[in-house]
Amino acid sequence: QYLERFYRVVSxxxxxxxxxxxxxxxxxxxxxxxxxxxxxxxxxELKTPISVLRGIVETLLEEExxxxxxxxxEKALRRVEQMQNLVEDLLTLTKLESGRxxxxxxxFKLRELVEEVYDSLEQEFVKKEVSFENLVSEDFKMxxxxxxxxxxxxxxxxxxxxxxKRGGKVWVRAKKEGNKQILEVxxxxxxxxxxxxxxxxERFYRVxxxxxxxxGGTGLGLSIVxxxxxxxxxxxxxxxxxxxxxxFSIVIPMYN
Length: 256
Ligand code: ADP
Hints:
The chain is an alpha+beta fold.
């Protein structure tokens, strides 16, 4: 009888603790969700004024002949572009973090996708005189969400050129091991000091804030990459040598 009472008291207590814990978890979740909604709403509100502002600066720049004024307008345009990139990245990230994003899986030629990403970044490669080699074979078929993989590769290749040296190199490779599809983006850039590597996938984490901003970085690229990989049930590995370069390896399982 004594044991039975003891058992009842203990299980009631555990029950109370569990209810407490569950309501704690759900209030944390609600808080996270309202934070996400706030960022999402604020980014949407900023989208239109920023693109109007961009239009105005571009028109003024087209008509301006005075070198001094052109210099300031060019500076303003770069800042506006930076704001636009930030808003775009914030919208992408909040969508990926919401847990409501679904994968649209299909089979496609990876080499063609890499070419498309390169075309969208060609100006950056040319400006920095960085050469690019697409080492993905013509018949390599990738099974994944093509649109999200575009975003993933664009962020990794953008970093590979942004943090490269003038005249450096970037390669993209792919291979299959069992049911794993492995993509690699490698560069001959400045590298990442080992103590920073564990944090680079966190939002707004930058090894060198000044350099990232100067390059037009938002600090969100690798967070976006991480979410896309996890959504595919995959993993990321980073191998980097300061002063030598970096290699980002993405493993995506094949489900079919
Ligand atoms: P950012 O917009 O600043 O590039 P990311 O999230 O894409 O933000 O990257 C986070 C940080 O990781 C960068 O600021 C940079 O310091 C470092 N990083 C990312 N990719 C590379 C790379 N390929 N080579 C050297 N450093 C890199």
